Sequence to fold (315 residues):
Amino acid sequence: MLCTQTQLGHPLPRGQPAPEVTLRWPRGPLSHAPRSSTLVTFLQLSRRLGQKKQRLLEAARQQSTTDGAQTPSAVEPCLGPPATRGPQCSIYFSSPKSHSAQLGSEFFDQPAVPLARAFLGQVLVRRLDDGTELRGRIVETEAYLGPEDEAAHSRGGRQTPRNRGMFMKPGTLYVYIIYGMYFCMNVSSRGDGACVLLRALEPLGGLETMRRLRSTVRKGAAGRPLKDRELCSGPSKLCQALAIDKSFDQRDLATDEAVWLERSPPESREPAVVAAARVGIGHAGEWAQKPLRFYIRGSPWVSVVDRAAEQNAQA
Fold:
């Protein structure tokens, strides 16, 4: 305990600083010391501070144990508030790409026909530069079987800079231009030159952004707003709505940061799948009639409904 000479009752000369004097109680039990109200108050305050310090130390230890961090040292206890998790650890700031629903390379490593069917119901995700995410459930695909397929760009086994993505690892995007201005997006499958064309989506998220993207490149009926079922009901419409262009060619759908595939939520029953002839390949002879287009029956988002194929499937 420290006090000055003034506090001890000795006046000081004018201008002279007061020296500090240390008072020590006589040796012996503390109970023999003078029981002034100041001493009692000091002891009570000291006891409460010690108890609070112990509680804070115990709380810090429990927090560090919960977070898996190192327990604070007893020599240098951390008396500040327990550290909180930063925003990067929050589920609300986590990237959807880290979600367990994302489909990896093993999903794409299968022949074109089973892959085309497996795509149905899965969710295609496109993240724009501003962070906006567009989502659509795949409802229609077409399989292209490679060199033997007269409708495939790889027919005869020919490989060019344009179709190189068809010969790359399963899951590689093959994006090409039609009519000099529209894009179509394919995904390579197992087998050289084999791939799956994504034909139609059911829009799930970011519909207004899709509508705006479609309107910027849409010809005719410019004043009429697009209906939801018109946003992604075709391979070129799909690319317009998701802002997919030639820059996506040869990207890996299993690892890309701007576009990826997620597993669809489990459903009570498997959707009915229709196998029909592909669209717009009349030049391919007998291959034009092969049932290599697959779509979810009854979906209003499909680009072309084949009534004959649906009736044959029921028969």
Summary: DSSP finds six helices and ten strands in the chain. The longest strand covers residues 133-144. The chain has a mean pLDDT of 80.
